[in-house]
Amino acid sequence: MTVRGLKPETVAWAVLWTAFGVYLLLCAGTVLAVRWFIQSATVVQEAQLTVTGGTVAIRPVSQGGSDWVVAPAQATLGEADQVRTDEGSSAFIRLPDGSTVSVLPGTELTLSRLRRFRFGEPGYLLDLTLRSGRLVLGVAHPSGRPTEFRLLDGGAEIRLAEGNYAVRKEASQLDVRVRQLGNAVIRSGPYQISLASLQRAVVYSGRVEGPLPPEEDLLKAGDFSQGLDDQAWQPVIEDACRAAPAVENRLEPVQVGDTGAVRFLRRNSEGTPCQMFLHQEVNRDVSDLLSLRLVIEFRIDQHSLSGGGYLGSEYPVQVRMLYRGADGGERLWVRGFYIQNLEGRRTDHGVKVDGGRWVEYTVPDAEDPSLLALAGGVRYIRWVEVMASGHDFEAYVRRISLLGQ
Hints:
Blueprint: H1 8-40, E1 42-44, E2 47-53, E3 56-59, E4 69-70, E5 74-77, E6 82-85, E7 90-94, E8 100-103, E9 108-117, E10 124-139, E11 148-153, E12 156-160, E13 163-170, E14 173-178, E15 184-188, E16 191-195, E17 200-204, E18 207-212, E19 216-217, E20 234-237, E21 248-256, E22 259-267, E23 274-285, E24 292-303, E25 317-324, E26 330-338, E27 350-352, E28 359-363, E29 380-390, E30 393-404
């Protein structure tokens, strides 16, 4: 008897060889499954938290906790645990591979994954989810296989290689900055970019802008050649400026030749003092910055008071910045400019420049080599003002920028 014309012995050999083939496939599958398990099996790790200021809250999800509790000075964190700082607190986290996370004020994050490979060369799988606020990350050099270090934000994923990074999340955008050495690969929706040293990017839902220059302007609408944005800047002429009967006070955008600028003008003062200025609220924590640079372009045509006036504080152009230091105290930083000092008046924090022409001036300068290292240390900038003060004066400001990196 045959099966479809085949002899029984032929069918038997076919069945035998088929079974043998299936056996080989099972063996190969088993070997591959074991190999995959050895390569990918992980064990949960812990991180160490140190409170560096104020009151820090943690949610110990890894231990079954669902409520926020006050963190002790030193705490051990597990996978899925959450950390939150308020506006006056900060923390430092050391991850299991030696990487570090500085949690700055006003931040909430989750340690989404803390894993080490069980077998083979040492290696780690580390995920952080940033919900709000700012982090400074130091990704350690891998001791074995490359560490997979990811920062997650909704649909965005940032893969970080060994290096130093600053990350800020505000509203619907995430700012990623490679502070020094490092490399970041950012994915959001269909977009993917790479950042090298001293580059940054802004990540939105489904898109990425970058690579961008390393410096970010902390001031809004500081290019007055394009006009004066009264949503960003509040113009103020103080009541004392109107003391003289025929006085003329002007704080306004004007056209000067082929460029726009803001004019600070006062005539017929009859020796009465005046302050007029543009004010902008900044309200920005700058403790994650490596450098801060002020650039201002201006022109002074004339001023009646010599130097900085009677008190060394009345300049036809000056910049004022109110900041909070590391000790919590607020201080006022000033830089003034003048073109003549015929009477030898005081010139506290003043710089003499040429009159009747455009000047670009940059701080840090000889008096202040670092804007972040001013008295008390600069941690938070509250506001910036561009001011003209004195008796009679005429000056123009074309641009001002406060550039952080």
